[in-house]
Design a protein that fits this description.
Layout (H helix, E strand, L loop, with lengths): L12 E8 L2 E8 L11 E4 L10 H8 L5 E4 L18 H15 L6 E6 L1 H12 L4 E7 L8 H14 L10 H22 L4 H13 L2 H13 L4 H9 L4 E6 L7 H11 L2 E5 L6 H4 L1 H17 L3 E4 L2 E4 L7 E5 L2 E5 L2
Parallel strand pairs: 3-4, 3-5, 5-6, 6-7, 7-8
Antiparallel strand pairs: 1-2, 2-4, 9-10, 11-12
Helix pairs in contact: 1-11, 2-3, 4-7, 5-6
């Protein structure tokens, strides 16, 4: 599992709270170096046990391209407020939160570019299905069409065995559940972080994030990841109606296998980029490549022609693509959709 090596905020990045119609959310906000946003803004949604900090390595380079970029803690994640009950962590409720965030960030720009990493991609997909009109584009980063598999699925089943053995029959006692998470941190996660060579300040952050994340959200979203329906066909209709979409993944992703994500991109009619050398967290493992890919895709989406109507169907007029470039050794390789 990839871990941040630094938590220092770049000069143009600040930690703050964003006020929306559905409450406040903790965010990292990156502004262009010249202080002028001449590109449309972007909103970044993290994965299951992640937070806005997972995007720290790419915030400054993304903003340097001339746009405001906002990375978010979802409801119940790290520094964002908790929901009152399990219902507040339902995918539909989190998607409504994302749309409220998009409204607050993109109020003066006509929408936002939305990126969802891993589980965040599933929530971003739900947001696009609820109301794609608020979005300028959708990027699914290391995210799949449905249920997660492999060792990550086994780890989620272990979470449910620990926190929800009665499958919802017991009352959610947050204090008791947090104590169980604390024990798991000391017995499992901290030793693993130290074995992985994480610095002490990073370990302290990981501990704080784990203990501040609502354990009820961990239960609800673990179940979602293990039972998530494949809604690719539904999303394909939204993409076909004009929402620019891209699927990005590392060649060594172990959450959803690369061929599975590749097939999803084909079914969606979306751009597809596989990042060499990266695994499940390209924003951490390959930040320069990832930020370049995002910027190129977003700029292309903003250059697209207005929606045109053909035989009763709507689509966006095609434009000549601007290839992104990533480095492999000393070579620069063009990536196209």
């Amino acid at each position: 599992m990839s871990t941040l090596t630094s938590l220092q905020l770049p000069e143009r990045v600040r930690s703050t709270f964003l006020t929306t119609s559905r409450g406040q959310f903790a965010v990292l906000e990156a502004q262009p170096a010249r202080g002028v946003s001449y590109r449309r803004p972007a909103v970044l949604i993290p994965g299951y046990t992640g937070s806005k900090e997972n995007f720290l390595p790419i915030l400054e380079p993304l903003a340097a391209a001339g746009r405001m970029v906002v990375a978010v803690d979802l409801r119940g994640q790290y520094q964002s407020p908790h929901a009152a009950s399990r219902r507040g962590y339902a995918p539909s409720a989190l998607a409504a939160d994302v749309l409220a965030i998009a409204d607050a960030v993109g109020a003066d720009s006509g929408g936002v570019h939305l990126v969802g990493h891993s589980m965040g991609g599933l929530i971003a997909r739900e947001a696009a299905l609820q109301n794609s009109a608020r979005l300028l584009s959708l990027t699914l980063l290391g995210s799949g069409p449905g249920v997660i598999g492999g060792q990550r699925a086994a780890a989620l089943r272990d979470v449910l065995t620990m926190l929800d053995p009665g499958d919802g029959a017991d009352t959610d006692d947050v204090n008791r559940l947090t104590a169980m998470v604390r024990q798991a941190w000391h017995e499992q996660h901290e030793p693993q972080a130290r074995a992985d060579g994480a610095h002490d300040h990073v370990i302290a952050f990981l501990k704080e994030r784990m203990l501040r994340t609502c354990p009820v959200s961990l239960i609800v979203l673990a179940k979602y990841l293990l039972n998530c329906p494949d809604r690719t066909d539904d999303l394909a209709r939204v993409v076909g109606a004009g929402l620019p979409a891209m699927v990005v993944y590392g060649e060594n992703d172990d959450a959803w296998q690369p061929p599975e994500q590749d097939l999803m991109a084909t079914r969606l009619g979306a751009d597809r980029v596989c990042i060499p050398g990266a695994a499940h967290s390209p924003a951490i493992e390959a930040p320069v490549t990832t930020s370049s890919i995002f910027t190129t895709f977003w700029n292309g989406a903003e250059r697209r022609q207005p929606t045109v109507h053909v035989c009763g169907r709507t689509r966006r007029a095609p434009v000549e693509s601007e290839p992104a470039a990533y480095a492999t050794g000393n070579e620069s390789v063009a990536v196209t959709g």
